Amino acid sequence: MSEWTTAGYLWLAVIASGIYHGVNPGMGWPLAVSAGLLDRRASELFRALGLLAMGHFVAMIGILLPFGAMMTLIVWEQQIRIAAGFIVIAAGIYLLINRRHPRVLARIPPAQLALWSFAAATAHGAGLMLVPIYLGLCQAGELDVGHQAAATLMTGNLITAAAVSVVHAAAMVASGGVIAIAVYRWLGPKFISQSWFNLDIVWAASLIVVGGIGIVSIGLAQ
Amino acid sequence: MTVRPDRTFHATAKLAMQAPVENFAYTLMLSPDFSQPDGLAIVDVNPKSKDYGKVVHSVIMPNKGDEFHHFGWNACSSALSPLNGHPFLERRFLIIPGIRSSRIYVIDTKGGPTKAKIHKVIEPEEVFAKTGYSRPHTIHCGPEGIYVSTLGGGGPDGTDGPPGIFVMDCETFDVIGRYEIDRGPQDKQYDFWWNLPRDYMVSSEWALPPQFEKGIVPEDLLSNKYGHRVHFWDLRERRNVQTIDLGANHQMALEVRPAHDPVKEYGFLGVVVDTTSLEGSIWTWWREDGKFHCEKTATIPPEAAAKDDLPPLLRGFEAVPPLVTDIDLSLDDRFLYVACWGTGEMRQYDVTDPMKPKLAGSVHIGGITRKTKHPGGGDYRGGPQMVEISRDGKRVYWTNSLYSTWDDQFYPDGVPAAMVKASVGENGGIILDKDFYVKFPEGYRSHQIRLEGGDCSTDSFCYPSV
Prior knowledge:
heterodimer; A: mainly alpha; B: mainly beta; Methylamine Dehydrogenase, Chain H; four-stranded antiparallel beta sheet; 30 strands; 39% strand
């Protein structure tokens, strides 16, 4: 597999995870429907989608940046990637065991949608799901350009973090947005309960799988 | 936890109206002299069933003296908002507080109403220790879990500190703690409800425990010492943002019934009695530009009566007050039902224009002086009291007891448990069903009714009806 295709697949994974998060009602698209219907204006629906995307973006970049910064410690790169994989797996296991209602989230007022979106994504480890993909991208980029000064590498990693977060949040809001608009215009609110599946276990398993792939891919690369 | 949302959860009130109809009702039974344990009766309300109108199952509690009053579900349609974070709860557990003992029972209805059984008992000490409140009353499921209003504060007579609302975990049923961060001038409590997407709550005032536990205190009533204010709250900030005084003569502001469609920022409130005229009244409250308002929009006059026909409490007035003790709003926000417990009348108002309720239907049954019989021929003592409307708005059920000690003052001959049903006409109007007349076990009185799959005073909807 050439380096270009590895990066290509990883970017596809960034988009795919964005769509996955976006279509999940738990990440907020029904709130955009509610906002549009409450004010009887589609503009309110789009405003809500924008706030949801913003919150989701901040939740992503907030997780990726520290990992990006750590990755400049070239000597520890493998250890960091392995540790990151285990953190993601641990988060998955935690969510699998602790399936309690996160009451703190319920205290966020409906008017603060961006904050809610950030908190919901963070509480469900949505950002962590991106970490192994992101670290893979950092490494792919690094192999592409060879060894560089730490500062240059750092800048590269940070730009990648921003790009991954933007692309992911865009895919998330586009997929959730399409559903929200379809429900608002044609399908009606009945679709909300019809389309909602309990993804708690699948979601937690996704984290474990992504973390696992992250660790295994390090082994394969050697 | 389920894989799909509970089929009795509906995004909008309109969808809830289209759902399959109820086959069973849950009705609370209380032993007024505390000689028997209180219970939950499951009543068959399917007209095609051979047991139509009969108690087909009952759950009898292990304690005496709880005094059952109101109750509610662990989860409702509000779970369909992602903001609440618990979409896969089941509408499965009934939370039944003892208004006198402060004990709370959690009843599991898994397997159907006729399989209902006790799941958990929360002892009064847990409520006292974790909340400082006593005498739990109204139950609503909402963002943080189960919200429970209380009528008493701490101490043996419930006057050590104001009563308020506390929150219970909706999965473990652990009592978490007080709801209020800033209660403002609120010092009495009765009912509460909210508009979830608009993020406000409305609460009302009945009285403090010494004013009701041993019976109504006439001196307190005539000096206007019962509750007469309505409080508006920032729901998630848990802060009282506005208090409206209805005027001291408007004694006992009880049920709060917001429009079910969250687009509508209004609701209703029933006031038991105006001490200057003995009238009962309906009030409409609404929010405009962030401010709340409340106005009297309908009154019900007292009926003249001969001294000798009246219980000692009312002899001096030579009149029967209507005593508006419960109101309930249909899911389409069209008809408001008003129980006149004193005069023995169930009224139906068309509230299409919420500022101008129009009388659309009425039936008489019971009453202090009228004593109207059931059309099936049976006695009906007391008056129409706790009223519940089917989700589709076509059937209305009600019982006859208000509160053990008050029953005895207004209806000294006793108020044996009754539950009746009326059918609603296409464009309003109500008629009693002569075949529906529930016989309860001896010695019990009946209070609140809940319908299988939700009814008009349980579910909060997070999406507008379109």
